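Trying the structure run again after the queue cleared.
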Amino acid sequence: MVFQSYAIWPHLDVFHNVAYPLQVNKPRPSKQEIEERVINSLEVVGMEDFMQRSATKLSGGQQQRVALARALVRRPKLLLLDEPLSNLDAKLREQMRIELEDMVSRIALTTLYVTHDQSEALALSDRVAIMSEGDIVQEGSPREVYGKPKNEFVASFLGVANFLIGEVEHIENGYGLIRVDRQDGLMKMPIPNGIKPRDRTLIVIRPEDIGIQTEYSKPSHNVIEGTVERVVFEGAHCECFINVQPHQIRVRLHQADAPIVGEQIWLQVMPDRCIVYPQS
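Done. Tokens:
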């Protein structure tokens, strides 16, 4: 197990931190075997050149590697990582996430990774389990859980999502026409089984699945008029907050396509990427 705080002993050097689980193990391996297994574990995490370094002289990333090596030295069948990157700064966290993914793939060890960071969960996992109040709400591949969340909780927990409420007016060939509350236009999108005309629904739309138009062209469906309230520059993209009373919709756009605050725009929603639930 790798703890959130790493639990590196400050009075020991790197070698003896990693060797400790073997030294207290019963039966205790031979001195030669302990040395071989410690060196092997340190090589796996790229810390073999730091065996004699004091734990107090390690950076955050190096401490994390030592904690990993200490967990691996016992050759476990399951590795448990309890938010191991939470104490690192953003740049180092991203670097260590990539290294951790490569290491786990290399040693082919089943790993249970506990995190509150959505990007870590999606980037590192083969399977994701979303928990609420002690129960697993949904489990599946990262793409499946993100793209087809089971309910509103999963959609809001894993990534950013917009929620619109409306009423179904018509259903034909698996597609429904939904009139969003306080909006003039209709939304046409896939409707799951069990939803009928006049049912109240909740529509989930991811920010990256919305485009914008600065000039009104009248398509048949899936256009919402709004006003730009806020634009947040985040480097490669911008987060735009659009007022479409009574809702506020978030849109993620390339920074070169960002609208101007106060500008009137029309949102173009991609229907096949939306998810519709019965309103609870």
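The radius of gyration is 25 Å. Worth checking whether this holds up in the mutant runs.
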